[in-house]
Amino acid sequence: MKTILFLIATLILTLSSVAFASAPQNDKNLNTVGSVDLDRYQGKWYEIARYPNRFQKKCVGNTTATYTIKKPGIVEVLNECLKENGKMNRAKGKAKVVDNETNAKLKVRFAPAWLSWLPAVWGDYWIIDLEQENYSYAVIGDPSRKYLWILSRTPELDEETYTKIIETIDQNGFESDKLIKTPQNVS
Predict the structure, then answer these.
(1) One digit per residue, pLDDT tens: the chain, 187 residues?
(2) Given CB 3.0 to 4.6 Å as the disulfide criterion, which of 8, 22, 140, 187 pairs with 149?
């Protein structure tokens, strides 16, 4: 039994070092917003658009993210989406603030807690645009520019706001033509 546990631990360490070593390097700086009030940021957000990614492959619409502060610097994340079969998919995760000065850089994991010591299970969640007056929309990206989400407090954004967000995305080195819009209110 000890041999099997040792082999599993060795495999996990090997895989995590390979994943960490092969992670895309940050060639370009990615600016975040100057400040995020996590109390105002928490709550439900609707996904307006995103880059395609492997963990949302089965989502066909009604995608939301709900953030709940659990203690200072720690946020519970609940992602939900409608799958093709009509059932809701739910993923619960944890986010931790890694830039206490701005609260704009977080690390997020959806892996089990016992794997949280592995750097490879934590993903960058950087808030690169945020409507400051009433927190009506946010744009989340990562320094590798592999992931990108546009979130809103409402299921739809007006075209003028969406166009403004696209300009910000392009200025930050993302490719806005890779975005796929997320249908909301799908039955």
Answers:
(1) 433 333 333 333 333 333 433 344 444 689 999 999 999 999 999 999 999 999 899 999 999 999 999 999 999 999 999 999 999 999 999 999 999 999 999 999 998 889 988 888 899 999 999 999 999 999 999 999 999 999 999 999 999 999 999 999 999 999 999 999 999 987 7
(2) 140
Q: Record the pTM.
A: 0.84
From 29, 63, 31, select the one nearest 46 (Cα to Cα).
Answer: 63
Is 117 inside a domain boundary? yes
For residue 167, give Cα distances in angstroms to 139, 175, 183.
12, 10, 22
Residue at 19 is within a domain: no
Tokens of 86: 């009509």
CATH of the domain at 106: 2.40.128.20
